[in-house]
From TrEMBL:
A Pfam family assignment: Hpt
Keywords for this protein: Phosphoprotein, Two-component regulatory system
Annotated protein name in UniProt: HPt domain-containing protein
Cross-referenced InterPro entries: HPT_dom_sf, Sig_transdc_His_kin_Hpt_dom
Organism (species): Alteraurantiacibacter buctensis
Amino acid sequence: MTPFDEALLRMRESFARQAKDRALRLERALIEGDRSALVDVAHKIAGIAGMVGFPDLGERAAQVEDLADRQVSSADLAAEGRRLAKELFELGSIHQPEGKDD
């Protein structure tokens, strides 16, 4: 494995470990109706996810960012945002360090 591949693997693992926290921030923004925070969180997820090998997650986050930015209905935004949060929770659960339960 090249040094670049090793660095990419570390970034991918770090993103996965932080997925639950990102999902919680996303859900908090949805609950509070804070579109600005939602755009910010989704934008960060979209950029990082695609870069470290989770392109589908990155695309979903970009879609949530776009919906929040375009001021679509709260119901449509909430549905997509919750779908993204669920995927993040699942990713975080899969990559949970051994011996650590939430």
